[in-house]
Amino acid sequence: MDAPGLEVVVASGSPIIVDIDARPRVNAYVEKIYGQQSYWLPTLSEGDVLVFTSMMFHRTQNDPQITKTRYSPELRGPIKDQTLAIAATPHDWSKIEVVQDAPTH
Protein backbone atom coordinates (compact mmCIF):
# COMPACT_ATOMS: atom_id res chain seq x y z
CA MET A 1 0.00 0.00 0.00
CA ASP A 2 1.49 3.32 -1.00
CA ALA A 3 -1.23 5.76 0.12
CA PRO A 4 -3.11 5.86 3.42
CA GLY A 5 -6.63 4.58 3.72
CA LEU A 6 -9.56 5.76 5.78
CA GLU A 7 -9.85 4.62 9.39
CA VAL A 8 -13.25 4.67 11.06
CA VAL A 9 -14.13 4.06 14.70
CA VAL A 10 -16.71 1.31 14.90
CA ALA A 11 -19.81 2.22 16.97
CA SER A 12 -18.79 5.87 17.44
CA GLY A 13 -21.31 8.60 16.98
CA SER A 14 -21.30 11.53 19.36
CA PRO A 15 -20.24 14.17 20.18
CA ILE A 16 -19.60 15.90 16.88
CA ILE A 17 -16.34 17.83 17.31
CA VAL A 18 -15.94 20.80 14.97
CA ASP A 19 -12.48 22.12 15.92
CA ILE A 20 -10.03 20.22 13.72
CA ASP A 21 -7.10 21.87 15.52
CA ALA A 22 -8.05 19.65 18.46
CA ARG A 23 -6.92 16.53 16.54
CA PRO A 24 -4.38 15.22 19.12
CA ARG A 25 -6.96 15.57 21.89
CA VAL A 26 -9.66 13.98 19.71
CA ASN A 27 -7.43 10.96 19.08
CA ALA A 28 -6.75 10.59 22.82
CA TYR A 29 -10.47 10.96 23.60
CA VAL A 30 -11.50 8.37 21.00
CA GLU A 31 -8.91 5.85 22.19
CA LYS A 32 -9.95 6.34 25.83
CA ILE A 33 -13.70 6.02 25.17
CA TYR A 34 -13.75 3.44 22.35
CA GLY A 35 -10.33 1.76 22.65
CA GLN A 36 -7.59 1.29 20.09
CA GLN A 37 -9.24 -1.96 18.95
CA SER A 38 -12.28 -0.02 17.69
CA TYR A 39 -10.37 1.45 14.74
CA TRP A 40 -11.31 -0.26 11.47
CA LEU A 41 -9.34 0.13 8.27
CA PRO A 42 -11.64 -1.20 5.53
CA THR A 43 -10.02 -2.58 2.41
CA LEU A 44 -11.25 -0.32 -0.36
CA SER A 45 -10.39 -0.49 -4.04
CA GLU A 46 -10.53 2.27 -6.59
CA GLY A 47 -14.19 3.01 -7.26
CA ASP A 48 -15.45 1.58 -3.94
CA VAL A 49 -17.76 3.69 -1.79
CA LEU A 50 -17.99 3.78 1.99
CA VAL A 51 -21.12 5.49 3.32
CA PHE A 52 -21.34 6.80 6.87
CA THR A 53 -22.67 9.83 8.70
CA SER A 54 -20.55 12.71 9.92
CA MET A 55 -21.33 11.43 13.40
CA MET A 56 -18.87 8.54 12.97
CA PHE A 57 -15.32 9.35 14.05
CA HIS A 58 -13.03 8.91 11.07
CA ARG A 59 -9.54 9.94 10.02
CA THR A 60 -6.83 9.34 7.48
CA GLN A 61 -4.91 6.18 8.34
CA ASN A 62 -2.19 6.94 10.85
CA ASP A 63 0.99 5.26 9.57
CA PRO A 64 4.28 7.19 9.37
CA GLN A 65 5.61 4.67 6.80
CA ILE A 66 3.02 5.82 4.23
CA THR A 67 3.98 9.13 2.67
CA LYS A 68 1.57 9.55 -0.25
CA THR A 69 -1.66 11.55 -0.09
CA ARG A 70 -5.10 10.03 0.41
CA TYR A 71 -7.63 11.44 -2.02
CA SER A 72 -11.23 11.33 -0.92
CA PRO A 73 -14.11 12.89 -2.83
CA GLU A 74 -16.99 13.60 -0.48
CA LEU A 75 -20.69 13.97 -1.08
CA ARG A 76 -22.48 15.59 1.83
CA GLY A 77 -26.05 16.45 2.49
CA PRO A 78 -28.56 16.65 5.30
CA ILE A 79 -30.27 13.60 6.71
CA LYS A 80 -33.89 14.66 6.40
CA ASP A 81 -35.57 11.64 7.97
CA GLN A 82 -34.73 12.05 11.65
CA THR A 83 -36.69 8.91 12.52
CA LEU A 84 -33.77 6.85 11.21
CA ALA A 85 -31.91 4.86 13.84
CA ILE A 86 -28.18 5.43 13.42
CA ALA A 87 -25.85 3.15 15.36
CA ALA A 88 -24.13 4.71 18.37
CA THR A 89 -26.07 7.97 18.17
CA PRO A 90 -28.89 9.14 20.42
CA HIS A 91 -32.31 8.26 19.00
CA ASP A 92 -33.47 11.74 19.98
CA TRP A 93 -31.49 13.88 17.56
CA SER A 94 -31.79 16.91 19.81
CA LYS A 95 -29.47 15.08 22.25
CA ILE A 96 -26.60 14.82 19.71
CA GLU A 97 -23.87 16.91 21.24
CA VAL A 98 -21.86 19.34 19.10
CA VAL A 99 -18.74 20.69 20.77
CA GLN A 100 -16.09 23.15 19.65
CA ASP A 101 -13.22 21.26 21.25
CA ALA A 102 -12.38 17.68 22.17
CA PRO A 103 -13.89 16.53 25.47
CA THR A 104 -11.38 16.05 28.25
CA HIS A 105 -13.01 13.07 30.03
Descriptive overview:
By secondary structure, the protein is α+β, with helices and mostly antiparallel strands. The chain has one domain. Helices cover 11% and strands 12% of the residues. The chain has a 3-stranded antiparallel β-sheet with strand order 3-1-4, with no helix packed on it. Strands 2-5 form a two-stranded parallel sheet. It is globular. The mean pLDDT is 77.
Question: Could you give a short description of this structure?
Answer:
The mean pLDDT is 77. This protein has one helix at 23-34; strands at residues 6-9, 16-17, 39-40, 58-60, 98-99.
Query: Terminal Cα separation, in Å?
Result: 35 Å
Reported for the largest beta sheet, the result is: 3 strands, antiparallel
Average pLDDT: 77
Q: What value does the Rg take, in angstroms?
A: 15 Å
Number of beta strands: 5
Strand order of the largest sheet: 3-1-4
Layout: helices, strands, pairs:
Blueprint: E1 6-9, E2 16-17, H1 23-34, E3 39-40, E4 58-60, E5 98-99
Parallel strand pairs: 2-5
Antiparallel strand pairs: 1-3, 1-4
